[in-house]
Specification:
With 202 residues, the protein is an alpha+beta fold. The protein has a single domain, classed as 3-Layer(aba) Sandwich (Aminopeptidase), CATH 3.40.630. The strands form 2 sheets. Strands 1, 2, 3, 4, 7 and 9 form a 6-stranded mixed β-sheet that branches. Strands 5-8-6 form a 3-stranded antiparallel β-sheet, with no helix packed on it. Strand 2 and strand 3 form a beta hairpin. The relative contact order is 0.17. The structure holds coenzyme A. Coenzyme A (COA) binds next to helix 1, strand 4 and helix 3.
């Protein structure tokens, strides 16, 4: 039986390991390195994270899945701005993948986000997965990334029908940690060295 609850500070160590193990199963063209556990570390006490929207899935007391949200926004052609949410990393332990836990975490957290008054979720993620949960290609809403592209991996979900409107715009992922995790080579190396020693992994 799976239960979903908010994350607590005591979950940190289990979530670091969970994130590392989950993302070992992900590969895509151009993947530079596996740094999602470093991202989780950077986000640990960051004001970027919306604490009411961090959730863990438990199975018989074991943490088996995790999702967290940060703020994002759309810069509109008329100079206006629309507030949105972004989630990630989203992780499910390899041995429990494809048993509905990821979908349960996404649905549960998006229901809560809607209750809290949020209007839409923008993500870049696994292209074949999120459409199963109702996400659409962001370009269908006229949205692009900051570099002007709108790849399949860039997807959107309206928590409130019509929230994204028809004006389009440029998505901005406001948490600096997403880019930092990918670019801060020295920080990553130092962190991963400590992580390897603590968890005994490669
Ligand atoms: C991607 C991930 C979060 C999905 O969670 P999950 O619990 O394994 O997936 P679910 O059981 O909720 O899957 C729901 C549906 O999506 C499908 N699905 C699951 N993973 C998929 C994938 N990587 N690609 C395409 N479809 C996928 C399932 O088969 C299922 O389809 P169905 O409803 O037709 O049976 C999880 O596999 C994971 O942690 N992967 C490694 C890390 C990762 O890639 N995170 C997301 C980065 S954006």
């Amino acid at each position: 039986m799976i239960t979903i609850r908010n994350e607590t500070p005591e979950d940190y160590k289990a979530l670091l390991r969970l994130t590392y193990d989950a993302f070992l199963t992900l590969d895509y063209p151009g993947r530079r390195r596996m740094d999602e556990h470093y991202l989780l570390h950077l986000l640990r006490s960051s004001p970027s994270v919306i604490r009411e929207l961090t959730f863990v899935a438990e199975r018989d007391g074991e943490v088996v899945g995790h999702i967290l949200y940060t703020h994002s926004a759309i810069s509109r052609p008329d100079g206006g701005e629309t507030a949105t949410l972004t989630f990630g990393p989203l992780s499910v332990l390899p041995q429990y993948q494809r048993s509905g836990i990821g979908a349960a975490l996404v649905r549960h957290s998006m229901d809560r986000a809607r209750e809290l008054g949020h209007g839409a979720v923008l993500i870049t993620g696994v292209t074949d997965y999120y459409p199963k949960l109702g996400f659409r290609r962001a370009r269908e809403f006229g949205l692009t990334l900051e570099d002007g592209t709108a790849p399949d991996a860039f997807m959107a979900y309206e928590l409130t029908d019509g929230y994204l409107g028809a004006d389009g715009g440029v998505a901005r992922f406001l948490a600096p940690e997403y880019e930092l995790a990918e670019t801060d080579d020295a920080g990553y190396a130092a962190f991963h060295e400590r992580f390897r020693a603590e968890f005994g992994v490669e």
